[in-house]
Specification:
- The protein is of the alpha/beta class.
- The protein has one domain (2-147): Immunoglobulin-like.
- The chain is built from 2 helices and 8 strands; from the N terminus they run H-E-E-E-E-H-E-E-E-E.
- It has helices spanning 2-19, 80-90; strands spanning 30-36, 47-50, 55-62, 69-74, 98-101, 110-116, 122-130, 138-143.
- The protein has a 5-stranded mixed sheet, covered by helices on one side. Strands 1-3-6 form a 3-stranded mixed sheet, with no helix packed on it.
- A hairpin with a 7-residue loop joins strand 7 (122-130) and strand 8.
- The longest helix is centred in the first third of the chain and has 18 residues, at 2-19.
- It starts with a helix and ends in a 17-residue tail after the last strand.
Length: 160
């Protein structure tokens, strides 16, 4: 009985730690930080996993020396490289390509970004959209399938 209770407590602590994790677990508002590095021109987090319609709040930091950029969450199915090339050629990205677009984030500055993840499960891309990108800066947002918890034997604690 004591062993079962200890295992249950350890699993509960682990689940609670995951529930308050940085990206992708639980139903609370997710918080985190993304930054773009001058050294390798990439996002510090390249993949985020969220539940459908999850509230998401994070700080985006621009560590580049000369380039300002907007954080943009593209619509499902949009190619991040093609979208960045389109924005470079036209000077603006039409709103039909994205779900969310932040204000410009100047070099050395940060911006708090909040949005709700899309309702449809699947793969979405987020990009750092600047006026003259040297590289394609993008990451992946995975919206998971909603799962319905199933009660099973593992939910029962044997007190014998």
């Amino acid at each position: 009985m004591k062993v079962n209770l200890i295992i249950f407590c350890a699993m509960f602590v682990c689940l609670e730690a995951c529930n308050s994790g940085l990206f992708g677990w639980g139903t609370k508002v997710k918080k985190g930080e993304l930054s773009v590095s001058e050294n390798d021109h990439s996002f510090s987090v390249s993949k985020i996993e969220l539940d459908p319609k999850a509230s998401f709040s994070f700080k985006v930091s621009n560590n580049l020396k000369k380039e300002a950029f907007s954080f943009v969450l593209l619509k499902k199915g949009e190619d991040p490289i093609l979208v960045q090339h389109l924005a470079m050629q036209t000077g603006e990205l039409p709103s039909s390509y994205y779900l969310f677009k932040s204000d410009m984030i100047e070099p050395g500055k940060s911006l708090k970004v909040m949005f709700e993840s899309p309702e449809l499960p699947g793969k979405y891309y987020y990009v750092a959209l600047s006026e003259s990108p040297k590289d394609s800066l993008f990451g992946t947002l995975i919206v998971r399938e909603e799962t319905v918890p199933v009660k099973g034997e593992s939910d029962v604690i044997n007190e014998d």
